[in-house]
Amino acid sequence: MENKQNYGLLTAITMIIGIVIGSGIFFKSDEILLKTGGSVGLGVLVFCIGAWSIIFGSLTLTELSIRTKKNGGVVGYYEDFISNSLASGFGWFQTFIYFPTINAVVSWVAGVYTCLLFGIPSTLENQILIGFAYMTILYIVNTLSLKYGGYIQNLSTIIKLIPLIGIAIISAFWMPTNVDIPQGVEHITKSGVGFGWLAALAPIAFSFDGWIVATSITNEVDNPKKNMPLALIIGPLVVLGVYVLYFLGLNKMLGAEYIMSMKNDAIDKIGNLLLGANGAKIILVFVIIAILGVVNGLTLGSLRMPQALASKNMLPGSRRIEKIDPKLQLSLWSCFISFVVAIFWLFMNYLAQKSKILGSGDVSEISIVFSYVCYTLLYLKVLKMKREKIITSFFKGVICPVFALLGSAIILIGGIVSNPIYVPIFIALCLVVCLLGAWYYHSNSNKRNSR
After folding, report:
1. Up-side HSE of residue 302: CA atoms within 13 Å toward CB?
2. Any idea which fold 9-450 has?
3. Which residue has the higher pLDDT, 36 or 165?
4. What is the band of 84 on the pLDDT scale with cuts at 50, 70, 90?
5. pLDDT at 134
6. Which bin fits 101, alpha (ψ -120 to 50), beta or left (φ > 0)?
């Protein structure tokens, strides 16, 4: 059956922008400054590295997406071009670590900003409980109604651009002033960090994450060989422009030391400066809606993952999990598994934040770094396809995958630099989950073949 061409170039570009621009830019700007020692120039540099990684990464994976009819994005690429066992391993990583860790962290951050909005004591426990409530509500909404989940996603995509573009534009006409750091708050000053700035690549990877989803729509784009490469260059460049202008605007209005010292609370001050006494609350409403849009989008994707794996016989109890409820058009077992795993990682993020074992980072950054490691197998496959003359273009078959590999390597190094002890341990955990998924599929295949 031929794939329907549902999307033109403009739709493909806006879809990429909508997927990539999420919550990270709102609560990672302070981390980027902390890891670059308050250097705005180095901050812009790591934003550019992040864009570079996704442009060449997505252009490389497009060469696989136009040659497969398998669904499931990267899992489908692994099935067609690497092996079914490794596809299962990557699927396990996405289902049990990647999606739920990001969902847990973003839900927690929604709790952080909700405490600020309503003046609730900003204890970690309160933030986590509010995040749990948001996550639960959105899981229920998306399970019971596909339509309402879609409405939430469309509305939040528009709303989240308002404060980013607004602050970027207003800051261009803003006269720099000294913003005082409140008494009782530790004053963090600018400092030299040497090569420690590489650690800023972990929060950058979080801010740019989501681009991989865009490659899964290739077969539904009109004239994909021409339009997808264009969309995958223009889209990330627009995102880079929005991010850099917002980052520069934030620093011009508040100063790097204020942002580093106040961390997530810095967005409060922007609201006060722009809109007066109630301005902080207005800005926070926009930010919370944007963040909840990300939670909703992650929920939309993750609650389907167990069913997708079960349909390929990649999970224990696949027959039960793959059954679709005719009324809800979803597998209830799949939704339940996804929810339980997300709650588990919300609790693990609580322990990580409480103990400070990841410093200023969080559990999701490491899973995103590991995902870049997983993409390297696909980049190498594209290089092999060039040698085999399946791909004839030197740019698409050599330049793009080599730069994509370099981008992944830089992000991996940055992740390890951010926490040399715990990041390698967590990466090893991700690898173990992948190996378990691969082993499960391989052993089940052998059983089926021996019957």
Report:
1. 31
2. Amino acid/polyamine transporter I (1.20.1740)
3. 36
4. very high
5. 96
6. alpha
